[in-house]
Amino acid sequence: MSASITLLVLSAVLCGTGVYVMLERSLTRILVGFLLLGNGINLLLFLMAGRSGQAPLIGDASEADSIVDPVPQVLMLTAIVINFGITAFLLALIYRSWWLANLGDEGDTVSDEHEEDERELEDAERMSVSIEEDDEAMRAELASEVEDTAHAVLDAADSATGATAAVGEGSAAAGSSPSGSSPSASARDSSRDERDVTS
């Protein structure tokens, strides 16, 4: 059995490159390295079969030396199928990791339209409640300001009325006393007037 040195070197280069690329942490590089390693092993299995010859069928009258060994061919077909399945799995992993990386904080949960509508409805209810509370607070503030203003106006009116009455009493007392009378006499007259009023 003789093998091609070129195919043997090519198989070794593919296997070595595949292992080197698989040592990276990126999933894409792991996929490429796995493909290279799988192709290198398939080529090695192909070289194990030896030279080409007749098909290994039972009942053929051919000589045993000219029949090709079927085991490496079966192994190569099995390796191709396994390589394809693992490649599909790695592609799914790469897509999934890309999807999760793009979602960010949301992670794996994808929100439904109904959940978004319910969230918007809750936000609207919270906003209306806060607006009503703000309106009530503004009404209470305005009522207290109006009450304070009314009290201030009434106090000013009372003080103005008291000042007017004091000025009126002072002028009435000054007009009733004779010009030559003393202040003590006017005080006596005012105390006499108070007694008359009380009696």
User: How helical, in percent, are the residues?
Assistant: over 70%
- What is the radius of gyration? 55 Å
On the 0 to 100 scale, the average pLDDT is: 77
Give the low-pLDDT segments: 177-181
Give the number of helices. Answer: 5
Spatial gap, N to C terminus: 154 Å
> What oligomeric state is this?
single chain
Biggest sheet record = none
Q: What is the number of strand segments?
A: 0
Run of helices and strands: HHHHH
Computed structural class: mainly alpha
* Strand percent estimate: under 5%
Q: What's the shape? A: rod-shaped
Overview of this protein structure:
The chain has helices at residues 5-22, 27-48, 70-103, 113-176, 183-198. With 199 residues, the protein is mainly α. The longest helix is centred in the last third of the chain and has 64 residues, at 113-176. It starts with a helix and ends with a helix.
Topology:
Layout: H1 5-22, H2 27-48, H3 70-103, H4 113-176, H5 183-198
Helix pairs in contact: 1-2, 2-3
Summarize the structure.
By secondary structure, the protein is mainly α. The protein has helices at 5-22, 27-48, 70-103, 113-176, 183-198.
Features:
about 0% strand; rod-shaped; about 200 residues
